[in-house]
Amino acid sequence: MAYLAFLAAAPRLGRRVVQTTIVFFVVLFAALPVLLSHDVYSYVDYARLGVRHGLDPYVHPPLAAPADPAFPYVTWPDTTSAYGPLFTLATYPLAWFPVGAAVAALKAVAALSVLGLALIVSRLAAWRGVDPLRAAAFVALNPLVLVHVVGGAHNDGLAMLLATLGVAAILVAREASGGAALVAAIAVKASAAVVAPFALVAAARDEFAAPARPPGGRPSPRRPLARLLLSAAIAAAVVALVAYAAFGWHWLHAFGLAGENQGRTSHLSIPTTFGRLVGWDEEGPRAIALALYAALVAYLLLRTWRGADWIHAAAWASLGLLLATSWLLPWYLIWALPLAAISRDRPLQLLTLALTAYQLGARIPL
Questions:
Q1: For 189-326, where are the alpha helices, taking DSSP H only?
Q2: Which of 70, 234, 271, 272 is the most exposed place for a label (fewest CB within 10 A)?
Q3: What are phi and psi of 268, to 5 degrees?
Q4: pLDDT averaged over the chain?
Q5: SS3 78
Q6: Residue 250 — left, alpha, or beta (φ > 0 → left; ψ -120 to 50 → alpha)?
Q7: CA-CA distance, 88 to 242, in Å (whole number)?
Q8: Model confidence over 295-334: pLDDT tens digits?
Q9: 158 contacts 112 by C-beta, under 8 angstroms
């Protein structure tokens, strides 16, 4: 309730109060011990597997080195890394630090990512005619973000920071930077890919639309799609080459493992809850949810091609993914929060808040 009250009052509280409150709570949760989920210890363990034990974390699970100091804290000891190669390589230097120090560093990264998101979202919101203070608070003070993304040091904050940087770059016609940032986000965690199709369709629409031709002049030579695709291709090639040098092609297993998560169910995912209420087994609701989500994405892409706001469409696609997935964890809410904050769509924002309230019971004791 305090979060909702603060959102309602944010425009009247002023910039200094809102910014101070955001920084205070993000730093507070970063300073606390690791909360609830222990995934951050898996990040450290995968880094130590590669650096201290000479084992590929995309081939060998933590169980391959049970004597490692990080191993006792790992929740999924028999699972190989499901994270992108950019994130895995970025964590490798942490293998030389004590486990506690490595975890503290990752909590600092998560906190800085959330603060960075709040800053970028506030600027995008002002540019799009949305209250910037409310937008920043909508993202950074969300209780699931504070408890799980910051308190649990999940890398979803970093992935969405890079994805939102890509969105911001594309919106100011810097498609080259935007394409590279989106690839970097996906190379941290595959879930960030939901934004990319809408950016591509919007760029294609803008490129192939008939340009205005001044009398006696030539149409503008700007080619947003070509610039976006070229930068994304170059960034993807660089990531692939570096990842191949470090892991061979085994790093591709991470994207397959991320897809396999759809074969799992979490207790408070929407399809699982629906199946439980109507007495169905888990397969039926999962298939229905995925079919509806595919139809939603196709509809949103078509609307984008026909001129609709691609940010608004991508925001609905991000939230739709959370509603459709059978493997929903509380920190996944940050996938939808930045775009929802700047979407200019009140029903979308209210639905995001409703899903936040629903997920509070997933990992936060009430």
A1: 196-208, 224-247, 253-260, 270-278, 283-305, 310-324
A2: 234
A3: -105, 20
A4: 90
A5: coil
A6: alpha
A7: 12
A8: 999 999 999 999 999 999 999 999 999 999 888 899 999 9
A9: no
